[in-house]
Amino acid sequence: MPEKSSVDAVVVGAGPAGASAALELARAGRSVILLERGPFPGAKNVYGGVVYGRVLDEVLPGWWEDAPVQRWVTRRSTMMMTPTQALTIDFRTEDWGNAPYNGMTTYRADFDAWLAGKAVDAGAQLVTSTVATELLRDAAGRVVGVRTDRPDGDIRAELVIACDGVNSFLAKQAGLLPQTDAEQHTLGVKETLALPRKTIEERFGLSGDDGADFEILGCTGDISGGGFLYTNRDTVSVGVVLSLTGLAKSGRRPEEVLADLKAHPAIAPYLRGAELKEYSAHLIPEGGYRSMPPLTTDGLLVAGDAAAMCLAAGIWLEGVNFAIGSGLAAGRTAAEAIATGETSRLTGYRKRLEDNFVLTDHKNLQGAAHLVLSERVQQQYPRLLCDFAQEVFTVRNPEPKPGLGKLFRRTAARHGVRLRQLAADAWAGFRIFG
Amino acid sequence: MRQYPDMSFEDRMDTVDFEVGQRPHITVDSDICRSCTTKECVHACPAKLFVPTGDGGILFNYEQCFECGTCYQICNKAGAITWTYPDGGHGVVFRKG
Questions:
Q1: Model confidence pLDDT, tens digit, residues A80-118
Q2: Is A149 helix (H, G, I), strand (E, B) or coil?
Q3: Residue of chain B whose Cα is closest to the Cα of A134
Q4: Angle of helix A357-364 versus helix A320-340 axis, rounded to 10
Q5: Would A188 be classed as within a structural domain?
Q6: Is the domain of A281 the same as that of A208?
Q7: End position of a domain, from candidates A225, A250, A285
Q8: What top-level class of enzyme does the UniProt entry assign (chain A) (predicted)?
Q9: In angstroms, rounded to a whole number, what is the distance separating the alpha carbons of residues A204 and A52?
Q10: The CATH number of the domain where B79 resides is what?
Q11: Does residue B3 lie in a domain region?
Q12: Which residue segment(s) compose the domain that B53 sits in?
């Protein structure tokens, strides 16, 4: 690494947001250093299911030809469960198994390294095994670079883009993010388990490069959260996502909550005989739009998880695509600002995000996290729906079949669910998701 | 009570790669921990890095840290847990994240 180097921009964190920002800057002809604290991009990263690559169409046409894909998701299930029941909406389509594809499963060590490689191909300088320890400021307080943990490792730059993840110490240091904010975060814990490729395809009903992704509600006991199960080529990944405050209060260990999900009668048959290849954990900024920090300050832009751009909205669980989307926007804004010399005016960044899916989706779905993590959606409704399904499908000859409306009202009453509350939540859900 | 016999926690952690650094990137002030009655870090840490001691303090290990941040996010006692990233190139290395 050049000592006391001076570049147009320094991007901190070579995850999807950072790699995308560096790609845009390099393509605009700007000198850019992409800093990564791990030994390679992706070494510190964990995700919970699917990477949606559509956002790459514009910058990497045909990206699916060489992206490090495990499987293309052609089967998507939403499962609501109680300790002994599961009600699943199961969807599959061949369309998602053909170009341009919808979503892929991947290993982040592969995917992030691949995307960072695209930035390097475009001219960005990737520097790994280096932590950005603090922001450098000039006398006026403007951010003018970062200090690193290398000897003589100050890097001066016109602009800094912080893509340093969910714990972004740079955004915290800049006063954009609070030091701690447990209520807006969940903990994801995951096991990646080896199974023969053929076994995976038989159990999940897949063939070729097709893959399955299950999202699960009601599988985390007293702790708000959810679960997931998805297929890779010759491994499956299973995990739970736990509200930090709920986990703190519960007295339970994360891997025990995950063990309960793995032992569930609807999940266990998929995992029988599988061997643990890697246990992992990562925080997720699930607070959404309402917990987002200011996205810029003088000389600094924030993108990806550092800007809380994970979408946890019930049927939509996305993050890598928002990281890429915000990274591209930050890179474009930075390149323009450097070109015009107006590096203090970075308002174009927010405008860009509002004009595309990143802030539009987050803004539209801003109430979702609150609703999805509510006790009713977490506990009452899965029990109600599973019991209702059981009542509907239980045959009680010679007693005649009851009307579904009556059955539903009876089941709701048994679970203490007031129909007025259910209607209110349905209306709230319609307003959020409609 | 459900049993969790699938594997020992030590075997579980053996599936994860770590490039252990010299510098502990977590430090814990046991004097502050002694006044904490709940000690959420002990059960919530997914890598089980925090162990209560007989005198009410906390013993910790930084070597097998996932760098998730759960401990400092949920800690109720200001200044009890000091948490940074490990030095560049060190710490957890996920291969299948």
A1: 999 999 999 999 999 999 999 999 999 999 999 999 999
A2: coil
A3: B84
A4: 130
A5: yes
A6: yes
A7: A285
A8: oxidoreductase
A9: 21
A10: 3.30.70.20
A11: no
A12: 9-94
